[in-house]
Amino acid sequence: MLNTVKVGMVSLGCPKNQCDAELMLARIAKAGFRLVNEPGLADVVIINTCCFIQSAKEEAIEEIMEAINRKNDGLNKKIIVTGCLAERYREEVKDEFPEIDGVLGIAKNSDIVEAIYGALLDKKAASFGDISGHCMEGERLLSTLPHYAYLRIADGCDNRCSYCAIPTFRGGFRFREKESLLEEVRGLTENGVREIILVAQDVTNYPDLPGLLRELCGISGLKWLRLMYCYPERITDGLIETIKTEEKIVKYIDMPIQHCNRDILKAMNRSGDERSLWDLIAKLRNAVPGIVLRTTLLVGFPGETEERFTELAEFVNSVKFEHLGCFAYSGEENTAAAGFPGQVDEAERRHRAEVIEEQQEVRKTAFLEGLKGREYETVVEGYDRYFEMYFGRNYMYAPETDGMVYFSAKGEKPVLGRFVTVRITDVVDNNPIGETV
Predict the structure, then answer these.
(1) Above 70 in pLDDT, residue 2?
(2) Pairing of strands 405-408, 148-152
(3) Nearest to 152 by CA among 114, 125, 188
(4) 53: pLDDT strictly greater than 90
């Protein structure tokens, strides 16, 4: 009986990869297999990998090795590897890990059930296809909390940043039709989803993004709509106006700028400079009062001198992004930047990332201190027994990315997924603390 075969999945990396995992999970459940949350309890474990940068590859390999160790101990019987690492290193994954019972490239995610059958019959599968045929649509089994979901509106990328290998294993930019997206969100909201987070390699490359957003906002049941992965050069006046005027769009935007120095950005094959970024940020903050900005930086890029790094550090210290992530440059094979002159020592790259992150902690403290006494609508996401407080997110916090708001409750016990009003009263370890009102 299939329902006696336990299948578990470990999904690594970004929300786009998570959407792939959810499509596969729905197929597995529909086929009648029994899904388990703990990989150690699974007869068949699927590892949906990431390989964006070196640390992601290392994490994926570590997860594969853990599964192999469990298999050797008799806990897992079969191992199937999917996702970006499987797609990018097709032969290497098969050759380096003979204990694996199946490898699927991204374009073959829809064959996951067949791969499980094959593994159970001791028939090792290695299946790959044209990445442009990668399926982005279909029934999903959500792995998020029930009140929010990611909506992948596109996949692949045409930007060809010199440091990025994503187009080599995710392919060129291709988007989903608007009606398909609207239908999916209608179904999600009918099943209790209140927040939709738009994701893609480049959300702002979607044709008529403002028009899509307006139609999504017309769906009843939807409360919050959040934008992630927006390229600064594609944040148009029309998009800003839409964010400003549509109440369901949370006043939050994620735009990875990577750097501010003109020469570094040009070498990255990105446009803009410090002045253009300043102008965009000022425009956003003037047009949308209270907007929260998240960004990502890449430090230690070839040619980043001490002066250019200092320019970046001073820029972000002046801008004061509410949320910021910083990565040390990783020279990826099959990227132009890997062969550039002026490579920065690895230890120095890591040091520069640490400097930016330490400075951001100071800026974040000041930002959070300014929230004291203010009240924000907050979605309830759980209860922390250690702190003896509830936690959740207001509009300033994207799930799984920016942290939590902790709060005590007066009167009625908060319910998971419901929205309550929380007054911020304190800041502890850079976590806002509050109470319901």
Answers:
(1) no
(2) unpaired
(3) 188
(4) no
Whether the CB-CB separation of 266 and 302 falls below 8 Å is answered with no
Q: How far is CA 318 from CA 291, 313, 408, in A?
A: 17, 9, 34
pTM above 0.90, yes or no: yes
H-helix or E-strand containing 7?
Answer: strand 6-11
Please report the DSSP string for 81-110 in residue order.
EEEHHHHHTHHHHHHH-TT--EEE-GGGGG
- Burial pattern 134-163, b for ≥16 Cβ within 10 A else e, equals bebeeebbbebbebbbbbbbbbbbebebbb
Q: Strand, helix or coil at 364?
A: helix
Token pair listed for 110: 């829809």
Q: What is the mean pLDDT of residues 46-67?
A: 94
Whether 1 has a pLDDT exceeding 80, the answer reads: no
**pLDDT for 387:** 87
**Contact between residue 263 and residue 308 where contact means Cβ atoms under 8 Å apart:** yes
Looking at every residue in the chain, the average pLDDT score rounds to: 96
Residue 109 sits at the vertex; the CA angle it makes with 69 and 7, to the nearest 5 degrees, is 45
- How open is the CA angle 357-361-367, to the nearest 5 degrees? 135
Which pLDDT score, from 0 to 100, does residue 390 have? 98
Rounded distance between C-alpha atoms, residue 107 and residue 163, angstroms: 24
Helix (H) or strand (E) holding 150: strand 148-152
Give which of 184, 177, 280 is closest to 235, Cα–Cα. Answer: 280
435, 425 in Cβ contact below 8 A? yes
Domains and CATH numbers, the chain: 2-133 (3.40.50.12160), 148-369 (3.80.30.20), 375-436 (2.40.50.140)
Q: How many CA atoms lie within 13 A of 404 on its CB side?
A: 14
- Chain-centroid distance, C-alpha 378: 21
Residues 386-403 have pLDDT tens digits of: 989 999 999 999 999 999
Q: At 73, list the tokens.
A: 């101990």
Question: Which segments of 4-53 does DSSP mark as H helices, in order?
Answer: 15-30
Closest CA to 284 of 328, 241, 341: 241
Residue 118 has pLDDT above 90, yes or no: yes
The two three-digit tokens of residue 266, written as one number: 């040009």
